[in-house]
């Protein structure tokens, strides 16, 4: 099924099983606990290549339909991410509905851990937006099916940011003839864990960084530490920059923003950046913008978690994440040669590996 069909069903069809069928999910687990206030959804998309590994996101969704749509898209993306990275893992994801700044507590995460444990290893969780290593420690009190723990692989954000950074350099190599980012103007949307590490890489190389975020303290931190220029939440789309790096939530490349973006590269760590991959993936290409497929570019985090699960070293994880440069270069060059959107080439590479395994 094409991306446009998935988008329409997710938007218009409230039947959960229809959405599962449209995106070919294996299992969805709805979790609630009145005592702790837990409301969560765990989605297992595909386990052909191995257990479904994917982080847990805590976000204050406006409604439960949005939370379900997000977890379905994110878990599907994890299947593609793990496949294109050459990992023996399937794809899954979890979302906890709530404010990560005010509603966290040990009891909530331990109860969530019990739900993860009920899947008997079919799903392995880790950190994502709004989740810290300490949260995973609490989850680990109730289940061993968790990665990203302190003292082991720890916070995957540095590896995610590094993979995003080298992939961005590969895009620059094709677009500008050099992979140096010195003097390049980059708009980073999101100053969370990954965004901050990415900004450090960029400013260390001499890039001129503009940043926005909904969390004011994070903005002040990156401005003070790295000299990043703070801009408004909506202003980020109108900047005259070379690279737009979405590192927060998805669907920020859409009908509205594509009329405003002045960049020639889109390369960031957010998941599902194209609101509709079929429509916007082609439109980006037609505008001469290089789009680095998000599930390929941000795979450093899951590589880091796989290293923990598979007993690999931190050095192995960073080296593996560094290979994102070569994968990005291959996909972007093929897109230029074959006149096919980058997302389509990346999807086919991931799907072929899964089909071969089947």
Describe this structure in words.
The protein is of the alpha/beta class. Helices cover 47% and strands 15% of the residues. The strands form two sheets. Strands 1, 2, 3, 4, 5 and 6 form a six-stranded mixed sheet that branches. β11, α10 and β12 form a beta-alpha-beta unit. α4 crosses α5 and α6 crosses α7.
Name the descriptors.
disordered N terminus; 358 residues; Rossmann fold; six-stranded parallel sheet; alpha/beta; 15 helices; single chain; 47% helix
Number of helices: 15
**What does the average pLDDT come to?**
93
CATH class (first level) name of the largest domain: Alpha Beta
Strand content: 5-15%
**Cα shape:** globular
Give the CATH H-level superfamily of the largest domain. Answer: NAD(P)-binding Rossmann-like Domain
Q: Under the CATH scheme, which architecture of the largest domain would be assigned?
A: 3-Layer(aba) Sandwich
Percent range of helical residues: 40-55%
SS-based structural class? alpha/beta
Order of helices and strands: HHEEEEHEHEHHEHEHEEHEHEHHHHH
Largest sheet: 6 strands, mixed
Total number of beta strands? 12
Q: In CATH terms, what is the fold-level topology of the largest domain?
A: Rossmann fold
Number of discrete domains: 2
Structure summary:
With 358 residues, the chain is of the alpha/beta class. It has 15 helices and 12 strands. The chain folds into 2 domains: 119 residues, Leucine Dehydrogenase, chain A, domain 1 (Rossmann fold); 190 residues, Rossmann fold.
């Amino acid at each position: 099924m094409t991306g446009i069909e998935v988008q329409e069903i997710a938007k218009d069809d409230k039947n959960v099983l229809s959405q599962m069928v449209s995106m070919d999910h294996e299992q969805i687990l709805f979790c609630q606990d009145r005592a702790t206030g837990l409301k969560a959804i765990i989605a297992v998309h595909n386990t052909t290549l191995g257990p479904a590994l994917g982080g847990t996101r805590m976000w204050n969704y406006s409604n439960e339909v949005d939370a379900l749509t997000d977890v379905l898209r994110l878990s599907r993306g994890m299947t593609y991410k793990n496949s294109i990275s050459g990992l023996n893992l399937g794809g899954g994801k979890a979302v906890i509905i709530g404010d990560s700044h005010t509603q966290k507590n040990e009891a909530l995460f331990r109860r969530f851990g019990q739900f993860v444990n009920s899947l008997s290893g079919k799903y392995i969780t880790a950190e994502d937006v709004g989740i810290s290593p300490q949260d995973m420690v609490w989850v680990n009190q109730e289940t061993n099916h968790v990665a990203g723990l302190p003292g082991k692989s720890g916070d995957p954000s540095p590896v995610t940011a590094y993979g995003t950074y080298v992939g961005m350099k590969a895009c620059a190599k094709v677009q500008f003839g050099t992979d140096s980012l010195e003097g390049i103007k980059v708009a980073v949307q999101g100053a969370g864990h990954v965004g901050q590490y990415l900004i450090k890489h960029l400013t260390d190389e001499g890039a001129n960084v503009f940043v926005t975020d909904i969390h004011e303290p994070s903005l002040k931190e990156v401005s003070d530490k790295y000299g990043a220029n703070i801009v408004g939440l909506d202003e980020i789309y109108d900047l005259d920059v070379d690279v737009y790096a979405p590192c927060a939530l998805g669907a920020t490349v859409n009908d509205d923003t594509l009329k405003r973006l002045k960049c020639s590269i889109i390369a960031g760590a957010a998941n599902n950046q194209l609101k509709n991959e079929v429509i916007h993936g082609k439109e980006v290409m037609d505008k001469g913008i290089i789009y680095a497929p998000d599930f390929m570019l941000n795979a450093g985090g899951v590589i880091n978690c796989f290293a923990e699960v598979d007993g690999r070293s931190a050095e192995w994880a960073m080296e593996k994440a560094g290979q994102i440069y070569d994968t990005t270069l291959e996909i972007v060059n093929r897109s230029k040669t074959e006149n096919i959107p980058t997302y389509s080439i990346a999807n086919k590479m991931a799907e072929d590996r899964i089909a071969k395994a089947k």
